[in-house]
Amino acid sequence: xxxxxxxxxxxxxxxxxxxxxxxxxxxxxxxxxxxxxxxxxxxxxxxxxxxxxxxxxxxxxxxxxxxxxxxxxxxxxxxxxxxxxxxxxxxxxxxxxxxxxxxxxxxxxxxxxxxxxxxxxxxxxxxxxxxxxxxxxxxxxxxxxxxxxxxxxxxxxxxxxxxxxxxxxxxxxxxxxxxxxxxxxxxxxxxxxxxxxxxxxxxxxx
Length: 206
Description:
The protein is mostly helical. Helices cover 74% and strands 5% of the residues.
């Protein structure tokens, strides 16, 4: 499983994602739900202690002070960003920017509210958003895709790569390709994987 994640073969990873997300409505649901899940996780992780006792950094945005804490949330942001840039420098750079934007904006919300109030409110916000977004995605798979989510087959890959892939899906809809022929090759792999899954499903039924 880990070998598949760190292979940095964008075609195979995107084909894996695409085989579980071929329905337009399911794809749209994931585009709406995936990034809020990451944002709310970072919001809650803001209250984790600093790594190696690193000092926090104060940033002023439009006259408001934002206290950035270099904790596990920051570490996850860096890891996600590095993975995305490694997969595709152009789309990955945009994904990395969005990751850091989520980290800074979630830090802004948490630090503005204050620790005690923010943790209580953040926990409630995270719970509501996570429930809504996860429920939406499972509905997308159960009703529209009619296939179990990718996380049931490869949990780590699904969690790490989902934000990047929904962004790449949106960019692809606008005509972007990491390189010429990428979409055609990925689509062929997706169709082959879906056909294989349908054949296995049919064999189990018969």
